[in-house]
Amino acid sequence: MSRAGRVALLAGGVGAARLLRGLAALVRPTDLTVVVNTADDDVFHGLHVSPDVDTILYTLAGLSDPGRGWGIRDDSFRAIEALARYRGDTWFRLGDRDLATHLFRTEELRAGRLLSEVTADQARALGVKVRVLPMSDGRVRTIIETAQGRLSFQEYLVRERAKPVVKSIRYEGIRTAEPAPGVLAAIEQADIVVIAPSNPFVSIAPILGLTGVRAAVRRTSAPVVAVSPLIGGRPVKGPADRMMRALGMKPSPLPLAELYKDLLDGLVIDRADRSHVPALEGRGLRVTTTNTLMNTPVRSTAVAREVLSLADAARTPLAS
Amino acid sequence: MSRAGRVALLAGGVGAARLLRGLAALVRPTDLTVVVNTADDDVFHGLHVSPDVDTILYTLAGLSDPGRGWGIRDDSFRAIEALARYRGDTWFRLGDRDLATHLFRTEELRAGRLLSEVTADQARALGVKVRVLPMSDGRVRTIIETAQGRLSFQEYLVRERAKPVVKSIRYEGIRTAEPAPGVLAAIEQADIVVIAPSNPFVSIAPILGLTGVRAAVRRTSAPVVAVSPLIGGRPVKGPADRMMRALGMKPSPLPLAELYKDLLDGLVIDRADRSHVPALEGRGLRVTTTNTLMNTPVRSTAVAREVLSLADAARTPLAS
User: Fold this and answer.
1) Which of A53, A74, A99 to mutate: most B Cβ within 10 Å?
2) B12 CA: distance to closest CA in chain A (Å)
3) Going from the N-terminus, what domains does chain A have, and what CATH number goes with each?
4) Which terminus of chain B has a lower count of CB atoms within 10 Å, N or C?
5) How does strand A234-235 pair with strand A230-231?
6) What pTM was computed for the model?
7) What's chain A's Rg over C-alpha atoms?
8) Residues A61-105: pLDDT tens digits?
9) Is ipTM beyond 0.90?
10) Chain B contacts of A110, Cβ < 8 Å?
């Protein structure tokens, strides 16, 4: 175990989960708090699905499907296939074991419990010791305005396979939803704040957009380090590059540094993007280049180690 | 196809479903209306489960499990097993394919649709041509007062395996719930009314207890024929005999005839109960004895044929 101290991770789905499994190998689980995006939560077949929370929980519990990045390994799809007899709109595929997570969550929420409470129960039931906090108990929803109209994030990503041209992105409810209990404290008390290699628009922006969160990350004296989700200008998974282009940015670590410019001390980028190091350093950032593809637990730990080292280095001021 | 005309069947679960599959082999499906008990509906894991409606639909669709009498043949239980990680109370086992039925029903009901509408959709989706009417779109719930306290019917039957001593049975909501659209008309327009070999207390009584139903069955000029659920004083399935005893009756076709005395023209009983024929005939009933165990489709058709013959015979008055 490193003496990294307390780590707070701002997280989306699969990229975050893979970094997290590396951090969990290096940091005491009880020192690790992950604040998870819930702006792409949605209701399918009457069930409250929290895709990013589930990906985080399943990864930490060792249940995740290594290939897909969602759902439970070796799951079957008998319920959803049977549901197709009754209705056509079964494009959001939920596995049979995965369904249990949504059934439990939905029933507990209906009984008046908070998403953060239910998530804590689920983490405990799955043997997850890292503290997993949904970003908010309130309702925030990412809305993608596209050339084909207004879509929820899952409609855009899963149903339409991220093909519609993005015109703008907004976060319904972001002004009224509050950070979940513990979110601001976790950031304020962290010895390192890490921004996961997640989509900056649909995973990280909703977290930072909650009242007080961005300010807390800006204000902390702890080093703030991000890992770029791009490898050679393309994300491992998801539409981050298309979104960057649609919003007038050239996909690279540079727009990322711009989006997080008031927050970051350091940035871990892939070797494939090393040509951008001078420009990033020119903005006053410490930069580490490494192989950021975390397709095995060993690779996750290696990247996590780079994150912790960079944070350590950032504690001493850059020579100017 | 027989010229039985229109048949209305008052039905509980598996016994009714087995008679129904026989009737459906003899009567045009469009001439057949089944009015199904919903007083043992319940909510499990946030899902609205209608056990008797499901048993009827699955049997007519050829999906039912021949051994169990509930659920779908060859179903798996991965969701419910995964749910056990989150909570202990998974005593009501729902199969993965079966879950789809409850997910669809629950979501449609939450959207404001009526149980009778949703059931019609489900029957259509499953290729069921018989008209399946839940007895009511309102909420009626069988409450079993036992020596161990107040139980819902599923708690009594499934969780407690029908072991607690029954003190009384009541039907919450029965005074305010109305028969579903088409129920009274189906009885009034039927050429034969059949009371299925279902538990008289928890399956048939709630149907008859709805405003206007018992009166409609009493008033019809069509023959009314019941099939006894007992074989040698014991039901094929379920606690009918224990309930009879608990309520001070000796399990036999006689208390059944008493419970339905204002309604029946004829009664089909098992050969094992033939010693009761004189007493039943003494009450003015036409009685057929046969093998009532409908463990194969052929046996279902044979019993259904006896029902139709008895109804035919009942059209001519008994010599006195």
Assistant:
1) A99
2) 23
3) 7-140+174-314 (3.40.50.10680), 141-172 (no CATH)
4) C
5) antiparallel
6) 0.91
7) 19
8) 999 987 777 899 999 999 999 999 998 777 888 999 999 999 999
9) no
10) 46
